[in-house]
Design goal:
By secondary structure, the chain is of the alpha/beta class. The chain folds into three domains: about 280 residues, Thiamin diphosphate (ThDP)-binding fold, Pyr/PP domains (Rossmann fold, 3-Layer(aba) Sandwich), CATH 3.40.50.970; about 150 residues, Rossmann fold (3-Layer(aba) Sandwich), CATH 3.40.50; about 120 residues, Rossmann fold (3-Layer(aba) Sandwich), CATH 3.40.50.920. It contains 25 helices and 17 strands. The protein has a seven-stranded mixed β-sheet with strand order 7-6-8-9-11-10-15, sandwiched between helices. Strands 1-2-3-5-4 form a five-stranded parallel β-sheet, sandwiched between helices. It has a five-stranded mixed β-sheet with strand order 12-14-13-16-17, sandwiched between helices. The protein is globular and about 90 Å long. About 50% of the residues are buried.
Length: about 625
């Protein structure tokens, strides 16, 4: 008998389904995820790898009462489909669809919002501690995977776990991957646990022996499970998790529904902090994702048959350009070292990692460590380049301040994905300039296209202090055929006008030129300025424009409060009409979010006209 998502209702009790029905449901969930992500884009490989694990959890636990915490959150698609969100899931990451991450406001069964790594253990531990004090007997489960265990905050949570609560289930979804393959000692430790010959030999021998007992063997599953745990405790006693006060169970095949349900039912009745170690295959069930899980970690719409993108790619992107120029720089200077935090492909460093493995460091999901590590390299005379997404460098703010800026060390921070994106508030790179403007000795440069990124990177390497380069995802084609020579702290005038001085930051120069065209049609002459430097910025040029009676306007892909416009206005004590994000946009189409907040070229032009008339 089959069972599919079409038959799933709020009244369905998964524990009443047969194992065959659960397997059929798992297959249907996998098909739904594949078809939806191929159409909408999203996180594919991580979700394909956790279908059975999440289905088993929903079969054993009741998440109206029990609470499931996801680490990073991008592997929650099965959970969403099992909690009544199939209709909105089919519009995944669309403005009127569901988020690709757990969101408390979206469902009462999303226990905690998550979009960054390393939060699940600490947040779930806090929740469990609260339940202890309230006398609530609900179960708290933290599902940690994709390299998040190597995150510093995860280790801090582990250190505190056994002394905080006695009712906690930590599931380690070990797929040997974060976004790229896992790195570091913890990954090696987990691999050793799984591959330990002595343990696996005895486990296999015992299993074969039990299965071979005539008539009785099939009825000894419970005994076999207990024997498995006994053998494991014999060989793993004293290892990291048990030393931290957790009862270690596993490793278990994370795709074996029968074993998972059996073990979870047993663990449900045990007291004490428990760690269940499962191993899964990232991209499970889709051969192209299994073969290349890094590529299919996060993807735009693609063709299921070929795996190729169905969306036209820009001829040149900022990430590709950065990857090329850092390789070119290394050819000339062996002191240049590249560092990333689990994002080799996304930041454009794949070529550098291949050509200069001795000069490349992937620190895993540990942005703070990577930033401090870079400062140490710089103190010893090297020229480190740190490539991290703008939304994730926020996690390293103190390290940038304390270790690089305070000591005035020449670290170049290259922040990809600076600007709003489709994944929502946790992934928008629209907050960090507000941090940077407060730090000593730090310069912030923002290129409008690939050529400016190339020039700015070369200039940053010549400085003897920390420099941030911020640039968005996607198109980096030329804004103008030829840029004016780059001069430290000076802006570039792209168009000359008389009534309005429109200062654009980075790629917003493209939008600014469209705004100027709209205003020109209305007879309003506009100077378009490519800010280039946002700290320090070209104060002299802005003062001259203000003194000539021009309306000062700024445009940036950043929040207005704390953005470049607010910074410039405060520095010069001048009124400025500021355009940027007034509130954090939701997930979905960036164009739709821009329209909602009045940031389309026609809307900006209209607002400027109103300001002039006012």
């Amino acid at each position: 008998m089959s069972f599919t998502l079409d038959q799933l209702t709020s009244e369905t009790r998964l524990r009443d389904l047969s194992l065959d029905e659960l397997r059929e449901l798992a297959a249907d969930i996998r098909r739904e995820i594949l078809e939806t992500v191929a159409r909408q884009g999203g996180h594919l490989a991580s979700n394909l790898g956790t279908v059975e694990l999440e289905l088993a959890l929903h079969t054993v636990f009741d998440f109206h009462k029990d609470r499931l915490f996801f680490d990073t959150g991008h592997q929650c698609y099965t959970h969403k489909l099992l909690t009544g969100r199939r209709q909105t899931f089919q519009k995944l990451r669309a403005t009127d669809g569901c988020s690709g991450f757990p969101v408390r406001a979206e469902s009462s069964e999303d226990a905690f919002g998550a979009g960054h790594s390393g939060t699940a253990i600490s947040a779930a531990l806090g929740y469990a501690s609260a339940l202890d004090r309230q006398g609530d007997d609900g179960h708290v489960i933290a599902l940690v995977g994709d390299g998040a265990l190597g995150c510093g905050s995860s280790l801090e949570g582990l250190n505190n776990l056994s002394v905080t609560t006695k009712r906690f289930l930590l599931i380690l979804n070990d797929n040997k991957m974060s976004i790229a393959p896992n790195v570091g000692a913890i990954s090696r430790f987990l691999n050793h646990v799984i591959s330990a010959r002595s343990y696996n030999f005895i486990k296999g021998a015992c299993s074969d022996f039990i299965r071979g007992i005539p008539l009785v063997g099939p009825h000894l599953r419970e005994f076999a499970t207990r024997l498995d745990l006994a053998v494991k405790s014999l060989f793993l006693r004293g290892r990291m998790f048990s030393d931290l006060g957790l009862r270690y169970i596993g490793p278990v095949d994370g795709h074996d529904l029968d074993s998972l349900i059996t073990i979870l039912n047993r663990l449900k009745n045990l007291r004490g902090p428990i760690l269940l170690h499962t191993f899964t295959t990232k991209g499970r069930g889709y051969p192209l994702a299994e073969q290349n899980p890094s590529f299919f970690h996060g993807t735009g719409p693609f063709d299921l048959a070929t795996g190729k993108s169905t969306k036209a790619s820009p001829a040149v992107t900022f990430s590709q350009t950065f990857g090329d120029i850092v390789c070119e720089a290394r050819q000339k200077d062996s002191r240049i070292l590249a560092i990333t935090a689990g994002m080799v492909d996304g930041t454009g460093l794949k070529r550098f990692a291949k050509e200069y493995p001795e000069g490349f460091f992937d620190v895993g999901i540990a942005e703070g460590h990577g930033s401090c590590f870079a400062a140490g390299l710089a103190a010893a005379g090297m020229r480190p380049v740190v490539a991290i997404y703008a939304s994730f460098i926020q996690r390293a703010f103190d390290y940038v301040f304390h270790d690089a800026c305070l000591q005035n060390l020449p670290v170049v921070f290259c922040l990809d994905r600076a600007g709003a994106g489709v994944d929502g508030p946790t992934h928008h790179g629209i907050l960090d300039f507000a941090f940077w403007q407060a730090l000593p000795n730090l310069a912030v440069l923002q290129p409008s296209d690939a050529e400016e990124l190339r020039q700015m990177f070369q200039l940053a390497l010549q400085r003897e202090h920390p420099v941030v380069l911020r640039y968005p995802a996607g198109d980096a084609s030329n804004v103008v055929p030829n840029h004016a020579p780059l001069e430290w702290g000076k802006a570039e005038v792209l168009r000359e006008g008389t009534r309005v001085a429109l200062w654009a930051v980075g790629r917003e120069c493209v939008t600014a030129c469209k705004v100027a065209d709209c205003l020109a049609d209305a007879g309003i002459s506009v100077t378009v300025v490519n800010a280039r430097f946002t700290r320090p910025f070209d104060e002299a040029l802005m003062r001259r424009q203000a003194s000539s009676g021009m309306l000062l306007v700024t445009l940036e892909d950043h929040v207005v409060d704390g953005g470049f416009g607010a910074f410039a206005s405060a520095q010069l004590s001048l009124p400025i009409l500021k355009f940027g994000w007034r509130e954090l946009p939701s997930w979905g189409s960036v164009a739709a979010s821009r329209e909602k907040q009045g940031l389309l070229p026609e809307q900006i032009a209209h607002s400027i006209q109103e300001a002039l008339h006012g």
